[in-house]
Design brief:
single chain, about 120 residues, mainly beta, 9 strands
Length: about 120
Amino acid sequence: MPLASEGTTLFGPLEGGGLLHQETGTFTWRGVPRPAERTLRFLPGPGGTVDVRFADGRPFHDLDLSTGRYVADHPCAADLYRGEFTVRDEDHWRTLWRVRGPAKDLELDTGYVRVR
């Protein structure tokens, strides 16, 4: 069954450096719309990389977009999230999370468009 969603992601400065990433929106599962939100912290890492953390400070994944594409893994209990990040141009990027394991088998495909 497909999952549809729509929302907004805002980036803002973090005290001490980095970016605060706040997503809000609605996803629809089996015909029922539900609110959704997520907050991440993008912290400076070594050599221009990014250390992505959940809002509570737990590690999520690293990120290096210097080539325009990056693959990161995030273990979640017995499941594995594998994220592919692709920069199309300065205003468009995409994330594709493939989730596999005993509890989950899904793909989360998100396209981002910068609004100026």
